[in-house]
Amino acid sequence: MILIGASVVCWSIWRCRNDKVFNGKQLSNPIQVIFMSSYWLHFWSTMLPQEEQDTMRNGATLLESVAKGLLFHYGWRSSIRIAS
User: Fold this and answer.
1) 70 burial class (0-12, 13-18, 19+ CB within 10 angstroms)?
2) Which DSSP category does 28 fall into?
3) For residue 6, pLDDT beyond 60
4) Residue 3 and residue 80: Cα distance in Å, rounded?
5) Residue 40 burial (CB count, 10 A)
6) 39/8 Cα distance (integer angstroms)
7) What gap in Å lies between CA 72 and CA 10, rounded to an integer?
8) Mind listing the pLDDT tens digit for each residue in 34-66?
9) pLDDT of 7 above 70
10) For 66, what's the count of Cα atoms within 13 Å in the CB-facing half-sphere?
11) Gap between the Cα atoms of 20 and 17, Å rounded
């Protein structure tokens, strides 16, 4: 599970970097990487055995909650759309 989580974070950073370098897209804020990681955790959880899927999805949901808390704490608009 830890390796999957670390892989997801690295993959999300890589994708955001590629979007900036090759597509000229700017990150709306750094939390976008966290939301993208959460998306991929949900997506990749379907490839795990059934008993591990819920754990992975709960981790992704917790990651989203922390990111939303950071958005609120630092005054970023909560209505911004985060691309994945």
Assistant:
1) middle
2) S
3) yes
4) 30
5) 20
6) 9
7) 25
8) 889 999 999 989 999 988 999 999 999 998 888
9) yes
10) 11
11) 5
**Separation between Cα atoms, residue 64 and residue 77, nearest integer Å:** 15
Residue 13 binned pLDDT confidence (cut-offs 50, 70, 90): very high
| Residue 2, SS3 per DSSP | helix
Exposed, middle or buried by CB within 10 Å (0-12, 13-18, 19+), for 23?
Answer: exposed
Q: What is the pTM of this model?
A: 0.72
What does pLDDT average to over the chain? Answer: 84
The answer to whether residue 28 scores a pLDDT higher than 90 is no
Asked if 40 contacts 11 with a C-beta cutoff of 8 angstroms, the reply is: yes
CA distance 65 to 50: 23
Rg (CA), the chain: 13
Report pLDDT for 58. Answer: 92
